[in-house]
Design brief:
The chain is an alpha/beta fold. The chain is built from 18 helices and 14 strands. The chain has a 9-stranded mixed β-sheet with strand order 3-4-5-2-6-1-7-8-9, with helices on both faces.
Length: 442
Amino acid sequence: TSQHPLSRTRRTHNLGFHTLSSEGRTLLAMSLSKVTLVTGRSGAGRTSAIRHLLQHAPPGLLLAAVIADPEQLQLAPSLICGSSGGCLMLRNGCAVYASPDNGDALETLASLKERRLYDYILVDDDNIQTPQQYQEISELPIQGRSSILSDSCRLDTHVVVVDAQQFLSDLYSLELLAPDEESEESIASLESVSNSLCEQIEAANVIVINKTDLADATIVDQISSVVSFLNPDAKQVLTTHGKVEFSTALGTGAFKGLDGCSKQSGWSHLLRNRFRPIANDFFITWFVFRASRPFHPRRLYDLLEQARQGHGHLAKSFRSKGVLWLATSSHNYGVWSHAGRQFHVDEGADWTASTGSRKPRQEIAFFGSHMDHVGLEEDLANCLLTSEEFEGGKRTWAFFQDPFSWESEGAPTLARSGSGVALLAEDQISSALNLERPPVTV
């Protein structure tokens, strides 16, 4: 049987990547197992996509999948030729490995490189939801071994699977992701469903819009437009039942490192003046708010609170991100990150060290549907210090009421994790969820 173009001869060598010359690294990189990280919200179709790829792997290609529970794949018995120690061996040469009970895929991947070297490895692990998380664990020493994971595996492609039925609801959801444990620290760092969704899409190389047969065609087009603004560089695939072409998801070489990953989002393109206009039928527009005066923390907080309840011009934006300057924190910049109804305002590092500029400023990119640029810019400008307040100087600014209070022990949740939904009363949350609105507006 002829081999697939992506197939190649199995390797039997393993050299230390970091000890080689630049030419040696290039050659070795070509022989490393290529990892495809599969992420997306539970129920979107990640399992279906992995099952389809395993069942339709080209002849002669060595493919392994690492998932929490191989039984979830519901593979046909006729496809399985054996099982041992949490591993299912398939008749087409593929294999499925179970992650340990703690959900840590690191140990499983480490054991794979010792047992058998695969051409491609699919990883689906709830603890690894971004390329950054994968890269971090791949550089950690493997327990009981002298090597690290990146010596034998490299992240090649990041695939995000989204549910066409749920996407718009998730984008505007007030729901928070469940913490890994019920500790005070875990609860304080809760992440919202909407922000997690946007960040995964912005870091993706391939975005699979699944279950398109269950959603109206107009909604699917709308989702595709929103995704294009979130990540103009990613390849989009519209599909049903997780049917993804092998060459689309594996061996693409699309992942160019964390630096390239951080520059492919729509907001990054916009802030770097590299955003190319995208035609759409859903009145999605964009702009960057820039100012050289600090925000008054109380007035900014009130604006965000209003938008979280679905009111005001800011509520028309579905994604915004950038850096901000609070009057009560002139040394460190703030990180503004918003998705749907969730607003994260966290403390960053020193202006000079991290942004390359000694001049504090406001620089925030906005995307929205039916967005009133003039009205939103006026609302944001009203949150800036007035001329009289600005002339008072930093000593006066220090006495401003600051709900963010980055350095305060009694700071509200919003200041630490951005999970501002915790500041809303239960009736406000219910009201916000039931607001009637167009699918892409807030």
